[in-house]
Amino acid sequence: MKERLRNYRWLYAGMVAHRIQRATGLLLLFYLFVHVRTIHKLSEGPEAFNEALAQFRNPAFKLAEIGLLAVVILHALNGIRLTLHDMSIGHSRQREWFWGGAVGVGLLLFLLGAVPMFLSGVMRGAR
Amino acid sequence: MTVLDALFQIQREQDHTLVFRCACRVGMCGTCAVRVNGVPRLACRTRPSQIGTKDLTIEPLSHLPVIKDLAVSLEPFFEQWKRALPAFRGAGDGGAGLRRVPADSAFARLSRDKRDCITCGACFSACGIKGTSSEYMGPAALNRAYLRILDPRDNGARERLRAVDGERSGVWRCHTQFNCTAVCPKGISLTDSIARLKRLAARPGSIEKL
Fold first, then answer.
1. pTM, to two decimals
2. Backbone angles phi, psi at A111, to 5 degrees
3. What is the DSSP letter of B41?
4. Hey, is the C-beta of B68 within 8 angstroms of any chain A C-beta?
5. How many CB atoms lie within 10 A of CB A75?
6. I want to staple B180 with a disulfide (CB 3.0 to 4.6 A). Which of B71, B88, B123, B192 is the partner?
7. In chain A, which residues have their Cβ closer than 8 Å to the Cβ of B173?
8. Max alpha carbon distance in chain B (Å)?
């Protein structure tokens, strides 16, 4: 087992990408459970739904929402990268595709979305 | 000085019983592949200065049984290699039907950077999936199958494609981690070969168009 884990190591861009894809996939799965559970409250009437939504109005949840944005962007861009690699596009520059295409572009998109979310959600909520 | 030179020096001066493999010493035979600081490399083509650390940890290739010290048995590697039906299958006409492969043909172009495999086992050792599945054929065998399928003179393409079209052992087990491509001492894009095989396996009819 130890040997197996040692070979499953953080060394190359593709391996880092593989792990990030798995981790973000699991986080999205967790989010989907929370999402479906909240939506399910609709079937219990408006009061139950409003009560469930009230839990999400605190600044900590707004921060988690910003984290969710990062997870979605990374998972989506990494997925697009993998799809393109499956079509034999970008194999010779796979490191650049990951660090530039998925992480770099992802960071830019994240900042574009996260800053307004932070200002309107967390800061307003804190006031 | 290379890592192989260092191994010889250790054997000569410190431990006469040290076992390691080597043959050509110029990166052609693939015999001396070992893990240097965890990364599979050819000992004869690796200079300690390339690694960037003062101390080197030299280990045998992983996913292969160790015979002694740094010498591993490549039997599991070649068992998987055989499963990919690596041998050329001619038309059975004693070579009369052999065709020339022009340098500008699709086969020559597509196989250009995939023909140099020296079966060193570095990709097999680096593969993250190989670390979790002994059934998986591994990158070298799949690259070999792809080369054979590409070859217009070969007559076993369909059978070969069926052999590699496995969820647990074949192309679909690859998760595009690029570890094999990153460590290949010959610079072969093994991940690309596997991606192309996946597309062929998904649409076997496209073999005719190669």
1. 0.88
2. -65, -40
3. E
4. no
5. 20
6. B123
7. none
8. 60
| Domain that includes residue A22, residue range | 2-126
Segment B19-22 long-range contacts (CB within 8 Å, at least 24 positions apart): B19/B67, B19/B68, B19/B69, B19/B70, B19/B71, B20/B69, B20/B70, B20/B71, B21/B70, B21/B71
Q: Is A6 on the interface with B (CB under 8 A)?
A: yes
Query: How far apart are the C-alpha atoms of A105 and B3, rounded to whole Å?
Result: 40
Q: Would you call A18 an interface residue with chain B, using a CB distance cutoff of 8 Å?
A: yes
Q: For residue A72, what is the domain's CATH number?
A: 1.20.1300
In 3D space, the residue among A14, A81, A101, A18 whose CA is nearest the CA of residue B190 turns out to be A14
Which of A8, A10, A12, A81 has the highest number of chain B CBs within 10 A, making it the mutation to test binding with B?
A12
DSSP secondary structure code for residue A39 in this structure = H
Lowest mean pLDDT among A3-17, A76-90, B119-133, B134-148: A3-17
Q: Which domains does chain B have, with CATH numbers?
A: 3-72 (3.10.20.30), 75-209 (1.10.1060.10)
Structural tokens at position B205: 């009819």
- For A96, the token pair is 């650049």
* Total tally of structural domains belonging to chain A: 1
Contact status, residue B71 vs residue B20, Cβ threshold 8 Å: yes
A56 touches chain B (CB under 8 A): no
Residue whose tokens read 């001619």 = B90
Cβ atoms of residues B57 and B38 within 8 Å: yes
pLDDT surpasses 60 at A42: yes
**Percent of chain A beyond pLDDT 70?**
87
ipTM, two decimals: 0.82
Dist CA A33 CA B71 (whole Å): 50
CA dist B165 and A61 (Å) reads 46
**What is the distance between the alpha carbons of residues A60 and B70, in angstroms, rounded to a whole number?**
53
